Every structure is written in structure tokens, then in C-alpha cells.
Amino acid sequence: MLKPIRWKTFPLDFLRIQIGFALYGLSISLMIKGNLGTGAWAVLDVALSKIFEISVGRMTMITGFVVLVAALLMREKVGWGTLGNILSIGPWLDLFSRFIPNAEGNLPMQFAMLLGSVFLMGNASAIYIGVDAGAGPRDSMMLAINRVFGVSVRVARTAIELTVIFVGWLLGGPAGIGTAVFALLIGPAVQWGFKVFRVEPHKEEEGSRL
Q: What Cα–Cα distance (Å) separates residue 66 from each residue in 62, 124, 127?
């Protein structure tokens, strides 16, 4: 199911969505460089990147395509922004990772990077979902579960995060205390971002609740 392109607002929409993608890539880089354990998808992507010997950014692109297929099977609407998410966040992640130093042995800084990454990702999700050009593949899955099963965004997101953490950990990903903190806080952070930016996914569909 494809969302139509609004050509009149496309230039501004493209700028807004790229800001969201850049913030998302920055948030992932902060998690990885914080060395307290990454967020769920980064646990999986870092593990797979080591197995296949490619950059983490490139791995996020590959897993993004796989998750997109799953969301499409649940009949979630996608658009040009969904493909843009897959193609943009990985390069942003690799770019920021070149400049952000590793934080080791400095717990205050590490926790600041962790909490900052949660805050950034929650707002980044709201920014690009708010463009209504189609959510990213992972957020499309979250919204599909929200719509199909009638659970809240926080429940859908947290369930996905915990499942991915387990798989990533089995593959040797960098799970740690930061992973648990991120998994518990990202759902509320995304929902808070939705409220701040007044994002209402599926607002015209009955049974959808934030």
C-alpha cells in the first residue's frame, strides 16, 4: 500500500525528513560510541556487520529492507519516505561515527550519550513520521502492530525492541545495561515525540490508539 506523493510540498517535506534521518543516525552513533550497550536494532546490526564484515550503516540498510517486507505483509502503508529511511539513515550513521569518539571509563558521559540517544531517536521518529511520506521500515512495523493488534505505540515498540535484543545478543551483539535502559525508554520517548509534534498515525482508522 503506497502513500501518494504531495509534489507541492515535496521540497520542504524532503528537508524535514532528512533532518529526522540525520538525528536518527546521530542517535544510533551515540549509542554505539557510548559503550554501555546499544539499542535493540544496533545490537543486531553490529553483530551482523561483524559477521558479514561490512559497516554498521550498510547493515542497517539491509535489515531495513527485510523489515519493510514484513511490514508490507501486514498491509502497512509505505511511501517514498520509507525507502528514503532505508537509504539515508545508514550513511548518516557511518558519517557521524567517523567523528564521535568512543566514551569509555567515563560513566557520566556514557549515560549522557545513552539518554541523549533515546531522546533524539524519539523525536527523530516523530519528525519524519509527521511528514506523512511513509514511516521507516522499523517504525512501519511498529505502526502495523499498533493498528492490527490495537496495542499502544509504546507496547508495540517495546515488544519489537525486546525481541530484536534477544536475537542480536544470541549473535554476539553489544548488549548491556544501556540496552535494557534503551528498550524500556524508547517506546515512551517515541510517544512523547508524537505528542510534541502532534503526530497522529492512522488517525482516520478506528481502533488505532497511541
A: 7, 21, 23
The residue segments making up the domain with residue 75 are: 7-196
Spatial separation of the C-alpha atoms in residues 63 and 70, rounded to whole Å: 11
In a domain, 207, yes or no: no
Distance CA 24, CA 12 (A): 19
Residue pair 17/133 in contact (Cβ under 8 Å)? The answer is yes
Whether 206 is covered by a domain: the verdict is: no
2 domain-assigned: no
Helices (H), 74-136: 80-99, 107-130
Note the pLDDT tens digit of each residue in 25-67.
999 999 999 999 998 889 999 999 999 999 999 999 999 999 9
Question: What confidence tens digit (pLDDT) does each residue in 138-186 have?
Answer: 878 888 888 888 888 778 877 887 889 889 999 999 899 998 888 788 8
Global pTM value: 0.82
Q: How many domains does the chain have?
A: 1
Find the helix packing angle between 177-196 and 10-34, rounded to 10°. Answer: 160
Asked if the structure places residue 204 within a domain, the reply is no
Q: Which three cell numbers stand for residue 66?
A: 527485510
d(CA 117, CA 34): 9
> Nine-digit cell at 100?
564521535
